[in-house]
Fold each of these.
Amino acid sequence: MSLEIRQVTKKYKDFIAVDQLNFTIQEGEIFGLIGQNGAGKTTTFRMILNLQETTEGEIFWKGKSVHKLNRDFLGYLPEERGIFPQMKVEEQLYFFGMLRGKTKKELKPAIDYWIERFELDDKRVEKAETLSKGNQQKVQLIASFIHRPDFIILDEPFSGLDPVNRQHLMDAILYLKKQGTTILFSSHQMDNVEELCDHLCILKRGVSLYSGGLQDLKESYGKIKLSLRTERPLEELLLMTGVKSAVNTKDGQILLLEDERYGEEIFQAISNGQYIDKFSMDYLSLDEIFKLKVGEKHV
């Protein structure tokens, strides 16, 4: 494993921001840390970065305490964006890279590559303040990994991006993974987490509700999402055994079942031996699971 969070707690007087947190990230994987605002995600990032001390517990990188390591192995994109508005794009990237111990000669090929890849070539000598929000975000992202860190933390990297720039960022993250970089990121957009991550941790008020594989999480709920197309009224569908909820959509109805085993019984009742245009059972999306799980009461 690369990163290990072991029984980590962060207290501020009477407030517990992170409570006995445990998770591990394997080398070269993308790991998602998700939760509502105030769940403890940024506090966790800051403890990994040694910007805040842990009240209890330990954090290890490849078996060694992160507090004893040279910080150049890390890259960080904070949620609060921060680049120098008066500094030119290319100068900015050299500056951040040299802060991490790289020379201009070492940085030039990487800067040229990423400026071209992110379609910033005509912005090289422009001041950051003149750039669009999306382009500023791309510059700050490049700055977070221009020194080629082994481990990168991305705090809400997709926030405010249009679909084109979102895809640029998505492709960059996958490229870094192929290069062997270990990535930890948070996002309120669950489709991004679902597309990128094999493993994740769900936080609620500083407590981990789940840590493990995304597919394992989905399978724990079963295939309880039933999409169908029928003329039967919603009120009648809601009365069927095993149906927890039902809604009309533009393409039919979606039912949430108590258990996937009710699917066959519902199929028989609705079809009654007749052709059905649509009847499909599937796992819940991560967004749906998140709403269910975070909405549950936990003691």
Amino acid sequence: MFGLQNLQSVVGILGVLLLCWAMSENRRRFPWKLAIGAIAVQGLLVLALFSLPPLRAALQGVGLAVDGLAASTQAGVAFVFGFLAGTPNQPYPLTEPGALFVFAFRVLPVILVVCALAALLWHWKILVWITQAFGVIFERTMGLRGPPALATAATVFMGQVEGPIFIRSYLSSLSRSELFMLIAVGMACVSGSTMVAYATILKDVLPNAAAHVLTASIISAPAGVLLARIIIPRDDAVEQSQAYDPLAAKKYDSSIDALIKGTGDGLQIMLNVGATLIVFVALTAMVNNILGVFGDVAGAPLSVERGLGVVFAPLAWAIGVSWADAPTAGSLLGVKLVLTEFTAFINMGAIPMEELEPRTRVLMTYALCGFANIASVGINLAGYSVLAPERRSEVVGMVWKAMIAGFLATCLTASIVGLLPAALFG
């Protein structure tokens, strides 16, 4: 049933669109048809995925596949690291079973395995067909021309820098609007490897976590396209149709070659994620220690998380979160933007079930599921400097705005989910 909280999410939808319109480089060219179409596509996709029995069963199958993948990964981790992987056969008595969940051994290795598996599926052309299918959907429904549509689809599965690799030879000829759109969509989505990692983190506190994470990344792509087109409207004179063969962009000599190269790529991502988390969590702790000098304020010590909760609480409420949960949800949004979505998901996974409403957990899963954070600004600058060095100055000028667009895109997605009846996700 619909309630006031569902209508509350309308505030989030309108607020996000208004903020992007305020940042627009041409406010007179608001893409009304695209806005209506993109929001309708998102809503219909969520309704279809969670209400149609075959698709709902498929999503539940995704959850089982994620559990199987995690279990298989743990077998490999246990073989290399032994009892440190959290196996039942511990050489000492356990006083705290939760201590067996070590992020470095339970989550990061999943990224490694998924990257290798993705490379193998690409070599077998399975992932190529899926990506091309989504590319056609984006091209037909959102008016994208071939190469950007393909890169947008690839970004959903491969990641914010990996997606544009597939159209590397076309990056120099993209319009400014298209280039901005690719960066924004990259920050609005996550990669296949991190989807599985997030589902692993949330599976004990969010029913059907894998289905929500997968849905969040897919439906945030249209939101990213929409908000990017609002901020930098399309250039009809430049954007002409171009054909493109994705198989020419990424090739493997054999299945073994795909596994080896995929594992190498996964290792780099795993090390980057781990190193980024160490640095950003350490910096946050450093700032919190400095703030601790001022003592308690309003009954609690000052902290980065508390400050972010105050700043982003209104946005969390607009998405559809109850005001009681808004400070906590706002803190998660701020942590995602200033630190990383990994840190935000870890924080949400650590919140006891009784301290956060089920609706809040669902909405925040969609709002947090994107790469829009300060670290991604550096990742995009480094990536596009290699992929399109002649356009580096353009990327420098738009990457921060793209981060905001990607952040707001996931908030828009969460607002659309909040507009739908809660029984749909039961």
Amino acid sequence: MKKVLFLYALAVTALLLCTLRHYRSENRRLEQNQTALASDLHHYRTRLGEEAASAQALRLRCAEFERLRAADAERIRALGIRLRRLEAASKHVTRTEVTLRAPLGDPLLQPAAPTQDPLRRTPHEALLPDSLRRFRWSDPWVTVEGILGRDSVACRIESRDTLRQIVHRIPRRFLFIRWGTKALRQEIISSNPHTRIVYSEYIRIER
């Protein structure tokens, strides 16, 4: 009888410890999420001079992600992916601004308008300068080209960029001792120096 009671007490104690550990882990996750939602995006430059931003990651369960990010969940379903198979979801928004000065090219030539006087016409119609002016500016990341008309501008802008994402673990610290996981953080790096990262979100799905 005593042995049975001892085993029962041991099982209850183990269950309470597991429950307490689960609640502590859950509270820690919720606290990290609150910190991530309240913190702003941190901008900095890497040692290579690249634009970079740092943001704390959100840790959501599948049901929480479906409730709090309903639009993203719908897009994921549209891809034929089940939410329960989702590992993580990220979203980045950038803005590219370029201030440039480009020289104007030579005026474009076009045939002169036909005239009623045959004596003033050339065999192939004389080429006269038009009021259109062409311009072009480019660097390794952005190309801008267009035509200036009498009363309008036709312009084409092409921007090339590569966003690199790095997710890493921030350990807990006490003096010189590091252990566990304090938070998950992501680093987003842009290769385009004209790009500004204005928003970033990384969600890790917890099981």
Amino acid sequence: MSILKITDLVVKYGSKPVLKGIDLEIDSPGIYALVGPNGSGKTTLLNAISNLIPKSSGKITVFNSDNSNISNYKDMSYFPDQRVLYPYLTGYDHFNILMNVYKIDKGTVKRTIEKFNIESYIGKKVGEYSLGMKQHLLIALSSVIKPKLMILDEPMNGLDPSNIVKIRKLLIDIANEGTAILISSHNLFEIDMMTSKVYFLKDGKLMYEELKLEERVIFSFEKDIVDESIKTDTRFKIEGSSIEVNTKDISKSEALSILGELPNKIVDFKIQSKSSEDRYREIFEI
């Protein structure tokens, strides 16, 4: 089953075309990045997919059905940014809304709150939240319905490094559980840490590239590696306090999920390959 398919999509604002014949297809879980400069039409594309704005021509299907079909949205989530949250409601109030709309049981909500580690502030009004708290809440709300397709517009925007790391791991875990995530972002470094599946949007056209099919990632740890389960895994090349992985053998997201669980903490990493930033510079002639 196709999760998302776009064919020759055109979107105009008045007589001005913003999207000029977009083609895109996602047919498996994973993280897919949408990259382009400000004003290139990224948010317009996400809004068109979610049927929040009309298309001028072309076709969009979600789960093999036209994107105007309201039944699609029981398996799809889209929170544009933290402005969709109600500042005078608590985090739990927002979950209550979804419980009523999607008929979600309280047990599922409780497990989601615990999984995203937002128990300490879920009872507070969202107007009192920091930006990081709001982004955690948004992703928790997006995932509670266990969507097959999740769309996120700049979820890392404005976050400090600690929250970026937390959000990154949450998104990787969600994708590994079977969700296709389409994420727009300006943070090309974070894109490289999450996926090699990148759509570049330029002049209203979309270019898809499966970047870095083969690359080396070297993780540095606090101390020498002694964990036997890692030592016996041939996908990991260990030298002292460093572990090298080749993405031909294991994806970055899977490697990060495994290594992130070790008691020996990751303190640094290096990616040795052409990055999405390198490709961005080529495409946009920077």
